[in-house]
Design brief:
heterodimer; A: mainly alpha; B: about 500 residues; mainly alpha; 21 helices; disordered C terminus
Chain lengths: ~100, ~500
C-alpha cells in the first residue's frame, strides 16, 4: 500500500466518524423537535454567499486544472471527497440557527 | 500501458450483485421504518417533513439528490471522452447550479412560508392560471420521471457491467428496493437515507479511486504520462471542442435542472427558513469533490487505451469497468458498487418524494380540494409507486427515451427564465410567462433540432426571456410578492381540523 492510499483510508475513517457523530446528533434533534414542536418564528437571513460561491467555483476549476500539471494532484479529488463527508458532519455539529423571535429552550 | 492486463476481478457473481442491491435496500428499509415510527404522522409530515429539516440534514440530502448516476458515472465518462476539459465542463457548472438556487429559494421561502411546490407558487403568482401552473406541473412530472429513469439506468449499467447481470433484471430489483423503503416515510425517509447515502458515496469513492491508482503499475505518474502520451490535450482544461460539444449546453441544462425542479423546491420549503440559504451554499460547495474524485477513473481508462467497444459501447460504464478490471480485491469493488447504488437510490428516492408533493398539492388538492386526509395520505404514497412503475416500464420497454429527454429538456429550459423572472421581476405577467414558454418550444425546439444543441439552447433561453420582458413592459400590472404570505397551508390546515374535530 502506498503512503497516499494509507493516508486516504485513515482520513476517510476519521471523516466517516465525524459524519456519523454529527448524523446521530441530527437524528436526536429531529426526534426531540417532533415530540416538542416549536413554531417557526420570524427569521432573518442576511448571509452573503457571493464571495464564497465564487471561491467554490474557482477552487473546483483550479483543482481540476492542477491535475493536468502534476500527477500528485490526482489525489486531490479523493482527499476533497473526504472533506465533503467531514463537512456534512460538521454541518450537523454546528446545528441550526436560533430564530431571533423563537422562544428559548 | 497495456490493457491486456485488465481482467474481471474473480468472485463478482450475479448472486453477489443481487445481494448488494437487496442488502442495501433492506438496510434502508429498516431505517425508514424507524423514521416513519418516529417522525411521520400525516401527509404534511410525509411531503414536507413539517418544515423542520435542519442544517445538517439539509446539506446532506441536497448533496444526495444532486448526486445522480450522472455525477458518479458521467464524471468518469466525460473525463474519458474529453480529458480534463470534459471533467472541467461537467463539474464547474454542477456545483454552481445548486448554489444558484440561493436567491430564488430565499425569496420564496420567506414570502411564501407555507408553500409546498413550485407549481403552487406559479398558481398564486399568476392569478390561479391553470395554463401557467399546468405547464409547470407537467414539467415537474416529466423531470421527476426522467430523474428516476436515468438513475434506474445507472443502477442497471453498474450492476450489469460488474456482475454480468441482465440489465433489465437489475433495473427491476433496483426500483423495487428503492420504492419499498421510500414508500414508508416520505420526505423524512428521503432526507435521512439520502444523507447517509452521501457518506456512502464520498468516503468509499475516495478509498476506491486511491486503490485503483495503487493497483496500476507505476501509480499516478504512470497514468499521468500515458494520458499525456495518448493526447497532450487530455491534460488541458481549455479544449474548446469540449465547451462547444457539451459544456455550454450542459451548464444551462444544469441550471434548469435545479431551478426548475421540484426535488429542490420541496427541500426549500422543508428546510427551516433561516437555514435555507446556507444549506444550498454548503451543499453546492461540498458537492464539487464527488465528481472530481470519480472523474479520476476516466484518466485510467484513457491511460489503458480502453475503447468504447471494450466496455459495451456505453462510455458511462468506464468507471465500473476500470474498478472491476484493474485487479482490486472484491471488497473494494463492492464498496464502489455500493457508492454508485447509494447515489442512484437516493436520487430516485428524492424524486419519488418530490412526485408525492406534486400529486398531493398540484393535482389532488387542486382538482379535488375536498379530499380528506385519509385518502390524500394513501394517494400521496401510492403516487410514488406509480411514478416508479411508469419509469421502470419505459426503461424495460427498451424504447429510446430520447423523446422524453428532449421533451423534458425543452420544457425545463423553456421555463427557466420565465420562472426566474416570475420570482424576481414584479412585472412578469401570465401572458408573458405562458407565451414565453410556448414560443420557446414552438420556435426554439425546431432551431435546436436543426442547428444543434448550443444554438438551440441559447435560442430557447433568449426567446422565452425576451417574450416575458416584452409582455411585462407592455402590461402595467405589478405583482407584490409579499402578498404570497397570505397563502395558507391547505394540507396542514386540514389536518389541524381533523385533530380538532373530536373535541368540538
Amino acid at each position: 500500500m502506498s503512503i497516499a492510499f494509507t493516508l486516504i483510508v485513515t482520513l476517510g475513517l476519521l471523516g466517516a466518524a465525524t459524519f456519523l457523530i454529527g448524523f446521530s446528533k441530527g437524528v436526536g434533534e429531529a426526534v426531540r423537535e417532533y415530540r416538542n414542536p416549536q413554531p417557526e418564528g420570524a427569521w432573518i437571513d442576511e448571509g452573503h454567499y457571493g464571495v464564497g460561491a465564487l471561491f467554490a467555483v474557482v477552487a473546483s476549476a483550479v483543482v481540476i486544472a492542477l491535475v493536468g500539471v502534476a500527477p500528485a494532484w490526482i489525489y486531490a479529488g479523493p482527499l476533497l471527497a473526504i472533506v465533503t463527508a467531514t463537512g456534512v458532519g460538521v454541518a450537523f455539529l454546528m446545528g441550526n440557527r436560533r430564530s431571533p423571535t423563537a422562544p428559548k429552550a | 500501458m497495456d490493457k491486456s492486463v485488465l481482467a474481471l476481478t474473480n468472485g463478482l457473481s450475479p448472486a453477489l450483485g443481487f445481494a448488494i442491491m437487496i442488502g442495501l435496500g433492506i438496510f434502508l428499509l429498516a431505517l425508514s421504518f424507524a423514521i416513519k415510527t418516529a417522525l411521520v404522522r400525516n401527509t404534511h409530515d410525509f411531503i414536507i417533513a413539517d418544515r423542520k429539516v435542519g442544517f445538517g440534514f439539509g446539506v446532506g440530502s441536497v448533496i444526495a439528490v444532486w448526486t445522480w448516476a450522472m455525477a458518479v458515472m458521467m464524471s468518469s465518462a466525460m473525463t474519458y471522452q474529453w480529458g480534463l476539459s470534459g471533467l472541467f465542463w461537467f463539474v464547474v457548472p454542477n456545483g454552481f447550479a445548486v448554489i444558484a438556487m440561493i436567491p430564488f429559494a430565499r425569496i420564496l421561502r420567506r414570502n411564501m412560508p407555507q408553500g409546498y411546490t413550485i407549481s403552487e407558487f406559479v398558481k398564486y403568482r399568476f392569478a390561479h392560471s391553470k395554463v401557467a401552473s399546468g405547464i409547470v406541473t407537467l414539467t415537474m412530472i416529466f423531470g421527476i420521471l426522467l430523474e428516476i429513469l436515468i438513475n434506474l439506468k445507472g443502477t442497471s449499467v453498474v450492476i450489469s457491467t460488474v456482475f454480468s447481470v441482465d440489465w433489465k433484471v437489475a433495473a427491476i430489483v433496483g426500483i423495487v428496493c428503492v420504492l419499498t423503503y421510500s414508500y414508508f416515510g416520505g420526505l423524512w425517509t428521503s432526507v435521512m437515507t439520502g444523507t447517509l447515502n452521501t457518506l456512502m458515496v464520498t468516503v468509499p469513492a475516495a478509498i476506491v479511486v486511491a486503490a485503483v491508482y495503487d493497483h496500476v503499475h507505476g501509480g499516478a505518474p504512470a497514468v499521468f504520462d500515458a494520458v499525456a502520451a495518448a493526447n497532450p490535450r487530455n491534460l488541458s482544461v481549455l479544449r474548446p471542442d469540449a465547451a462547444a460539444g457539451f459544456g455550454i449546453t450542459l451548464a444551462f441544462g444544469l441550471l434548469a435542472a435545479t431551478v426548475a425542479d421540484q426535488t429542490f423546491w420541496q427541500k426549500v420549503w422543508a428546510i427551516r427558513g433561516p437555514e435555507v440559504a446556507r444549506t444550498f451554499f454548503w451543499a453546492g460547495a461540498l458537492f464539487y469533490p464527488i465528481p472530481i474524485c470519480l472523474g479520476m477513473l476516466g484518466l485510467v481508462g484513457i491511460a489503458f487505451g480502453i475503447t468504447a467497444t471494450d466496455i459495451g459501447g456505453d462510455i458511462a460504464a468506464i468507471g465500473p469497468y476500470v474498478v472491476s478490471h484493474v485487479g482490486l480485491p472484491v471488497a473494494l469493488v463492492i464498496l464502489y458498487v455500493l457508492s454508485i447504488l447509494a447515489a442512484c437510490y437516493s436520487t430516485i428516492d428524492g424524486a419519488s418524494a418530490a412526485l408525492s408533493s406534486v400529486v398531493a398539492v398540484d393535482i389532488v388538492k387542486r382538482y379535488w380540494p375536498a379530499t380528506n386526509e385519509g385518502p390524500l395520505f394513501v394517494i400521496t404514497k401510492l403516487s410514488m409507486l406509480g411514478g416508479g412503475v411508469v419509469a421502470t416500464l419505459i426503461v424495460l420497454s427498451g424504447v429510446d427515451f430520447t423523446t422524453l429527454v428532449l421533451t423534458t429538456y425543452a420544457l425545463k429550459t423553456s421555463i427557466l427564465l420565465p420562472l426566474v423572472l416570475a420570482i424576481l421581476w414584479p412585472r412578469t405577467n401570465t401572458i408573458g410567462f405562458v407565451g414565453g414558454v410556448a414560443l420557446a418550444i414552438l420556435i426554439g425546439m425546431p432551431i435546436y433540432e436543426t442547428q444543434g444543441e448550443l444554438i438551440g439552447t441559447l435560442s430557447i433561453v433568449v426567446i422565452s426571456g425576451m417574450t416575458v420582458l416584452i409582455a411585462g413592459h407592455a402590461g402595467s400590472a405589478r405583482f407584490d410578492i409579499a402578498s404570497l404570505r397570505r397563502v395558507g397551508d391547505d394540507i396542514a390546515a386540514q389536518q389541524t381540523a381533523v385533530i380538532v374535530q373530536p373535541a368540538e
